[in-house]
Amino acid sequence: MINIAVVDDDEEYRLQEREFIEKFARESGEKFDVKRFNSGMDFITDYKPVYDIVFLDIEMPLLSGMETARRLRREDDKVCIIFITKMSKYAIEGYEVNAIDFVVKPIKYFNYIDKLKKAIGYVKTHREKEVVIKSDENYFRLPVSSIYYVIKDKNYLIYRTVKGDIRVRGTMKTVEDELSDSGFSVCNSGCIVNLKLIGQVTPNCVIINGEQIPLSRRRIKDFKREMLSYLRGGSL
Fold this sequence. Notes:
Number of strands: 15
Structural class: alpha/beta
């Protein structure tokens, strides 16, 4: 699933872009979730880093597309930005915010889809798999490689990451479903660890980030098999 935001103060263009994306989804089999915003302010206020691609109109009242992009980059340095503009000269400013391309109005289907394909390729090539988690009112976008392990603490989960701990409400089942195909393996009923970051496995524990995590007896055989398979480049 690729998450797209369409930001334009003109309803006609918002509808047109959504129709273009839906048509391309039918033709290509790609899956998209599209959210539309009628102003830069509406989009950037309380922004959550959940989008892969943003189509952003440059000429908008109150908060221009360029200023919206500047604010966006302070919140999210990975999202792929494509500007929509009536005048191509404005698109040069896109380098300032690392926009990957621009589309000139009036929008034509094949041109728009060419830019969308470019963005999709960029996303798939450059972006590591991430998980988005919510702690209180804050959203965190975590590359899976930054997570040492996730451990259960009563009704909460603690994500131990390279930048510190994040505590959220959740279940181990949800985490296992999300991370088991990303090089993680369950070492006991209350913990799933990143196989890539393991330092050592002993008969009764896993050592990761200098910490000893208990390895349950019933999981020893499967855990070691999964770890060796992963390290050899196989699937779990």
